[in-house]
Each structure stands twice: as C-alpha cells, then as structure tokens.
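Tokens help. Our protein:
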Amino acid sequence: MAALYALAAAISLEAAMRSDGIAFVWPASGVAAGGLLMTAVQWRKTLLGGIFVASVLVNLNAGSSLAVTLWFSLANIVEAYLVCRIASGRDGASGSLNLPRWVARLALGAVAGSIASGTIASLAKIGSGQALEFFLSWTSTVLLGLLVVTPLVLAAGDRKMRRVAQITDGRVLLRSALFLATIAVSVAAFAQQSAPLLYLPLAMAMLMTYFLGPFGAASAVFIAALLGSLFTAKGMGSVHLVEGGPQTRALYFQVYLLVMLASTMPVATLLARSRAAARELRRNNAFLSAAEAKAHVGHWRLQLEPESLYWSDEVFAIHGMEKGRSPDLALALEAYHPADRERVSSSIKGSLASREPFSFEARIQRPDGTIRHVESTGEPELENGEVVAMFGVILDITERWQVLEELRRARNLARKQAREATKLADTDQLTGIASRRKFMERLSEEIARAEEGGGKLSLIMFDVDHFKAFNDSHGHAFGDLVLRMVAREAADSTRGQDLIGRIGGEEFAIIMPGAGMDTGTLAAERIRQRVANLRIEDDSGVAQNVSISLGIGEWTPGADEVWLMQAADNALYEAKRAGRNCLRQAA
C-alpha cells in the first residue's frame, strides 16, 4: 500500500508540474486513507511509517528541500491518521459504505484531515506571503482526493473479495458498458469547449450509482476527476469557459467534483443499504417459510378497508390449496367445517368489536374432502385508535389432535377395563352376587354410616346344610348348581338396599341397613322357606331337597365388622347344632 501511495503521489506531482503547479485532486491522500482503513489495527502504525518514508522519497525526488519535505510528509500522515481515527471510532474497526452513519463519519474525517494537513503543510510557506493561498489549494485538493479516492479504494477492496461472483453473476456486460459510457461522456464533456456538457458526467454518475452502488458512484467521480484533470491541464474542456485565471478554474472544477460526490455518494449509500435490507428481508422470508413449513404454521393478515386477505405459503399448504392469490374473507371462512363455521366467524367478529386477541380450534375441510384440525390465533391492528387490520397465525394441529384422540380412546378404554376389573373383583363369578371383598367393604361402610347416624343394622349369615354330601354324591357341578340356586332365592328375597354376598364355599351373608333384629329375623325366615321349597334335579333326574341354616346378628354402637360377623356366625352355628334348616338370633 505504501508503494501504491508513492506511485500515486509521484504521478500527481508530475501532473501538477505540467499544469503550472495546479493540482485539482490529490489521489495519494485517498490511497493512504483507504489503505489505512483496510489494514488491521495492529499494522496501521507500520503502514503510516511506510507512507511517511514514501512521501519523503517522492518529495525529495521532486526537488523539494528536506525541511519542506518533512513538513509535507508529516501533513500526509496526519491527514490519513485523522480520517482513519474519526471514521473508525473507538474500536478502530473499519465500517461499510452501505452504512450512512459511517459514510458521514468518513466525510467528517476527510474534512478534518484535509484542514489539519493544509495547516501543517502551510507552515513550510510561512514568510513567503503565499501561506493562505497555499493552505486553500492544499486543503481543497487533499479533500477531493480523500472524498473521491478513499471510497473507491474501499469499494474496490470489497469488490476484490467478491471477484469470482462478479465474473459469474451475468452482469459483466452491463458493468463494462457503464464504465465505457462514463469514460466516453467524460471525454465528450472535458475534451471540447464548443458546448458545456458538464451535466453529462453527472448523469452517468447517477446511472453508475443506481446499478453499481457506492463502487459505481466512486468510480464515476474518479473517472470525471481523472479525465477532467488531464484535459483541463491541457487547456481543453468546458472548465475553460469559466472566466478568471487558473486558480479560479481549478476551484470551479473542484466544486464541480464535490457536487458530483454530494449528488451520488449519499444516494449510493442509501441504495446499498436499502438493497442490503431487501436481501436480508428475502433471506429472512425464506427462513420464515422454511420454518413455517417445518412447524406446519402459517401467518395471515386481513386488511379491512379495502378488504383484502394475505396468506403465507404454509396457509395455502394447510388448506390443501395451490399457492396463488389469497381468497377473500368469505371464501376463507367457507373452508372451515360447516359445524365450526359460525363459531369461527363469531370469534373474528368479536375480536374486531372488542379489540382483544382471539383464539380457537376448528376443522378445515380441504378441497379433496380431507379434514385438518387447526388452531388459529390473531389480534387486531390499531392505527390512530381504529382497527385497520387483523394479523394472526394458523397452526395445523391434526397430528396433535390425533395423538390426543388416541390418548382419549386409550383413557376411556382403560377406565372401561378398570370398571370391568372392579366389577369382576366385586362379583362372585359362580353366583353373580357380591364377592367377599365387595361385601366386607360395604359392611365397613354401613357400620360407619350407622355409627354416624345412629341407625340400625343387621347381618344374616347362612350356609347350605350338608353341602359336602352334595359334592361327594353328585359331583362339583351339581354342588355349583345348588350354590347358584340358593344365591338366587336369597337375592330375590332381599330389599333393594340390602347386599348379599358369598363369603366363601357354601357360606353366604346379607347386610340389611336400617333393619333391627325383628326385621332381620323375618327376612331370614322368608329366605329359609324359599330355599326349603327348592327341588333341584341331579344328573339322574332325581329331585334333591336343599336346606340352609341361618344366624342373625344386630349391630350395637361401638361394634365393628369383626364383632358383628362373629355374632352372626355364632348364631349360625347354634342353628346347626339345633338340627339345621332353622335360624337363630345372636345373644
């Protein structure tokens, strides 16, 4: 970069000497500042040293004295340092020509750097009577060099990093044509004096700005500065139509270049920023579309006046429709299942009226007839206190709904199986009456209820007389038949609130809530008689008589189920000892 600076400085000095010492632009300043901005922070001091040495060598070679050379070289590195320091900020990082604030800092740095540089360089002219004139000339040429060349160096650096993309992006012909047209227009404007065509380079600069951004703007101004300087130095071009001496024409040309810069660079920066934002928006939209497709969620927006509905791509996918123009609100509502349509419409209307968010789950009926379950949420958009639109998202929850439906079916099946298992556990499989577990559970409940309410409670216990003889003589199948018949007769003889259960083997028991000993005795006698009247045929067709013995116990306050069952059981054995086919009351 120091060598490039030396080359630019040498060419600029040579051009100035050939044009009576007048320089319009000092490109070396822009090369130094641009190179410094592109250099890593830790290497900037080294580059400044290289620029200082290059400046010393170029000025000595041009015939300047050592003192003047040192002043000029100090001015050169100060201007580059100030531009870099002001543009980079505290962290020292270089910005981008796409950032308006950074471009403004760069321009501010160029102004500060050129003034500081002109002040230092003018110290070499103190006492000559030309210090002020020299200051103005130096400052203006350096300022133009910084403003014209620095952006070009920075933009060229960015373009260098994307060289391959530029070659293959299909726009090489357009860029080439723009550069050739800019050169041709600049030649036409500065190589003749018959017509003032200085507006043509400005027009081309605007075209370069539009198509190529900051690089195009900087390139157009640089081409105009380069060709304008060459032709003006030779006495050619529209600049010489300006009345006055060389200094006046030089100032006019410099103002012209500043106008070009002011007309193109801010626009280029804003355009680049806008296009970068557009690219970012497209990229984000692509990411959003991919995310929506992955998550099966889409977004929509309803504009109220004039009414228009926007659907994202995933909303079309959820509805099973091809991407295209979004339907109107009425058609969108018709996509919902007829049974859900009124509820959906009411949710949206209610949200618009209340200005509160809404949320609902509903079914969508696709054109092919398939049903999708969706969850839709949205909220009104307000402008000046008025609802102008509504924005929301729609989520395909079909898979979730199916999973939940499977869970509901599984839960219902589990409950059904649990009820069946409970029923099996509560029912004696042979006789169909309550099992021992169910019976004991109910007995505890009835004792607790009697204890709390002070009611009566009786318990009847009975078993089949000589049941073992039935099994031994006629087999277990006949014995099972006897048990079923006895259980049926006993169950038919009880009240609705009573509970009969099989305690074990041929032994049964009956809980009689609200019944005292007398009521229990009447019920027991009725059961005994019905069983005694049974005639059960065995396998040979011979009718067999069956009888039962019964014991009755009555609950007393403070007694538990063990005491009550023991009392009834003792009474049962008293009946057995009394000859069977009879009943006894507990003492």
